[in-house]
Amino acid sequence: MTESTGNGFVDAFKRYMPDSFVFAILLTLICAVLAAATVGAGPMTIISGWYKGFWSLLEFGMQMVLILATGFAIALSTLVGKLIDRLTRYISTPAKVYVFVVVAGYFFTYISWGWLVVTAVLARKLAERVGGIDYRYLVACVYLSGGGWVTGLSSSIPLVLNTDGNFLIEAGILSGKVPTSLTLGSPLNLAMIAFYVAVPPLLMYFLRPREGSAVEMKDLRAKGEQEETRTIAEEAQDLKLPYWAVSDALNNSRILSLIIFAMGGSYIFYYFATSGLDLNLNIMIFTFLMFGLLLHQTPMRYVIAMKRACSNISGIVFQYPFYAGIMGIMIHTGLGATIGSAMASGGSMLTYPVYSYLAGAVINFAIPSAGGEFAVLAPSVISAVKDLGAGLPPDVQMAMVAKASLAIAYGETTTNLLQPFFILIITPVMCAGLRLSARDIMGYLFIPFVVITVCQCLMVTFIPV
User: Fold this and answer.
1) Residue ranges making up the domain that contains 407
2) Rounded to two decimals, what is the model's pTM?
3) Less Cβ around it within 10 Å: N or C end of the chain?
4) Is residue 171 part of a domain?
5) How far apart are CA 139 and CA 424, in angstroms?
6) Residue closest to 413 by CA, chosen among 456, 354, 353, 349
């Protein structure tokens, strides 16, 4: 039942789901029509909002490019290759690889959602070494594994709520911070952690393609694409002049790499010593860069590693601005706030968490950024929740706010399984040199999406914070 049903969804997504760029164009047009029809926004208001939003994710897009390239460059080092070779002694069958990747990906992204690239690198290396893996399904496993980031240390919404003078406090909607003990440390979030560790790996184990039907990585290699046979060290050697030269001595100097690593490593130590485990994209990129330079030993080897790592990042470079433009329409026309207010107003003391969850899930299609989406939804949703809790003790109202906020976060993350925006984070690693696109992958995620959505709606309704 599960395999035939799953194959039906895979075929449907292949037939009907366009490329992620076309998906972004269609979403842009849909949001523009909705803004005109529901909030009465004029054409230039819509277009101006689209233009203003267009540039709002440039910093984020560049961060994505760098974290992908620096993370992939580390994976191309000899040491990491040896470690993965050892790992395949124990994870030697496709079923074990699928489960391992989902579990490992959850723990990586629990630390920081940007570490999804580490999961992608690990999965690709395992696919190169373990026979019989359906590579399309493996990419889906990697993407699914990132969903648990919302329960972890880099979860945007709980961190915003626990920030002094956050936008909700400035707007007078909240009187003070919401401590992480009510969000990340709550019984609801702890239950959600257990859910992510147990349920998605089991789902992907039972839904895995049957043996003998796998489309392996080698079967997907693009025409004319050849697997790189030269090592990075060999390519660096080939670039040397046939005689001794100062330029070659500098290019291949281990001393220069060590000096830069000593400088960078000193700051990394200082940062974590003074800031604790305050992970953000910038410190992660810097750490990846420094350790990549150390592992490749010389500047020239690192240049070659980065060249290989950057071979397939075009999707991020030009598609992120279009998704940011969609976010601009939602924010600057008031469409996002209107949708959020309409959904939140229908809640009761029992159903407000589910309404909050669904609001986060729906708006995520147009604003695939937890922080940006919360900025749009929070004023209307939290105001509605406070109205529901009027007259209750302040600690109960605070718990209701925390629960609604967590529900938005969980809903926002779950619909990523149907929204190809964040798959652009892993495709530069997973799909480089291969005939593979989002439509080949997303169909494997539909059944997990349904199961996770149903379970989470029940959990946010009945498990307290």
Assistant:
1) 2-222+239-462
2) 0.83
3) N
4) yes
5) 12
6) 456
φ and ψ of 224, to 5 deg:
90, -15
Cβ atoms of 152 and 111 closer than 8 Å: yes
Q: In the structure encoding, which two tokens stand for residue 77, read together?
A: 């080092």
What distance in Å separates the CA atoms of residue 141 and residue 126, rounded to the nearest whole number? 13
With contact defined as beta carbons under 8 Å apart, do 104 and 218 qualify?
A: no
Give the integer Cα–Cα distance in Å for 127 and 346: 48
Residue 175 lies in a domain: yes
Looking at residue 1, its pLDDT comes to 43
Q: Which of 406, 447, 440 is nearest to 420 (CA)?
A: 440
- The 10 Å CB-count burial string (b at 16+, else e) for 168-183 is bbeeebbeebbebebb
Residue 421 neighbours by CB under 8 Å, 6+ apart: 20, 24, 323, 368
pLDDT of residue 225: 59
Residue 209 lies in a domain: yes
Residue 450 to residue 453: CA distance in whole angstroms: 5
- 301, 22 Cβ separation under 8 angstroms: no
Residues 6+ apart with CB under 8 A from 132: 93, 94, 211, 214, 216
Q: What total of structural domains would you count in the chain?
A: 1
Which amino acid would we find at residue 312? N
Q: How far is it between the farthest Cα atoms of the chain?
A: 84
Amino acid identity of 133? I
User: Do residues 295 and 258 touch, judged by C-beta distance below 8 A?
Assistant: no
Averages of pLDDT over each 10 residues, the chain, 465 residues? 63 80 89 93 94 83 81 83 82 94 93 82 90 95 94 87 86 88 95 97 94 87 68 90 92 95 96 80 87 94 89 77 86 84 78 93 83 82 88 92 96 91 83 85 94 97 94
- φ, ψ of residue 440 to 5 degrees: the values are -80, -15
CA separation for the pair 383, 221 (Å, rounded)? 52
The pLDDT, as a whole number, for residue 136 is 95
Helices (H), ranges, 91-242: 94-111, 116-129, 135-145, 156-161, 167-170, 187-206, 232-238
In a domain? residue 45:
yes
Give me the residues paired with residue 221 across strands: 434
Q: Of 81, 317, 292, 97, whose CA–CA distance to 214 is shortest?
A: 97
Q: What is the DSSP string of 299-321?
A: HHHHHHHHHHHTTT-HHHHHHHH
Per the CB < 8 A criterion, the answer to whether 196 and 104 are in contact is no
| 3-class secondary structure per residue, 70-122 | HHHHHHCCHHHHHHHHHHCCCCCCHHHHHHHHHHHHHHHHHHCHHHHHHHHHH
